[in-house]
Amino acid sequence: MVTTMAFDVSGSCTGWCYGEDSTLTDWGKFISKLNRPRSQRLYDFYEWASVLINEFQPDIILIEKPYLGRNSNVLVSLSKFISALEIATFAACEETIKDDWFIDPKLVKKTLELKRTSGSTKKKYQANKAAMVKKINSLYGMRLKYDASKGKNYNDDDIADAIAVFTTWQMLHE
């Protein structure tokens, strides 16, 4: 049996999932307290990730690659959270995240056969989030939620993105 965790890392809300072989068994999200300084948020994230990874002891840890079209300040911040996850992984199970465990979001969309949406940047973003949640719900019989007018506490799009990374990996490695 091969165990896998997948993460959609963000400085505000990180979605995650866990599976044994190709069976999805657990999922959730970590919501950062945005009113705290970034160093405290990074430490909170590191502690949370360490506990989670230590609990599951996965063989493989997948991370959705950051979209390079983002603002450079966002990329810098996101890179810090990914680094915290890498350190937590090593601390929890002495595993190094391999380069091919970083999954490109374009590959995820292609593998799951999600079509590109058109429109303004904000509308495209919202449509892509809704489409991913719908796709994951249909694949797994889940009831994840996404409402563009609601916040991270309500929405499950980050969980859906992590599950999509897991699913892509499984489909490409069957």
Q: What best-fitting shape do the alpha-carbon axes yield?
A: globular
CATH class division: Alpha Beta
In total, how many domains does the architecture comprise?
A: 1
N-to-C terminal Cα separation, in Å?
13 Å
Oligomer: single chain
CATH homologous superfamily annotation: Ribonuclease H-like superfamily/Ribonuclease H
Radius of gyration: 15 Å
Average of the residue pLDDT scores: 94
What's the architecture, going by CATH? Answer: 2-Layer Sandwich
Number of separate helices: 5
| CATH topological fold name | Nucleotidyltransferase, domain 5
Low-confidence parts: none
Structural class: alpha/beta
> Main beta sheet, described?
5 strands, mixed
Strand order of the largest sheet: 3-2-1-4-5
Order of helices and strands: EEEHEHEHHH
Write a brief structural summary.
The protein is an alpha/beta fold and 174 residues long. Helices cover 48% and strands 17% of the residues. The protein has one domain (3-172): Ribonuclease H-like superfamily/Ribonuclease H (Nucleotidyltransferase, domain 5, 2-Layer Sandwich).
Q: What would your notes on this structure say?
A:
The structure is a single chain. The protein has about 170 residues and is of the alpha/beta class. It has one domain: Ribonuclease H-like superfamily/Ribonuclease H (Nucleotidyltransferase, domain 5). A 5-stranded mixed sheet has the order 3-2-1-4-5, sandwiched between helices. Strand 2 and strand 3 form a beta hairpin. Helix 3 packs across helix 5 and helix 4 crosses helix 5.
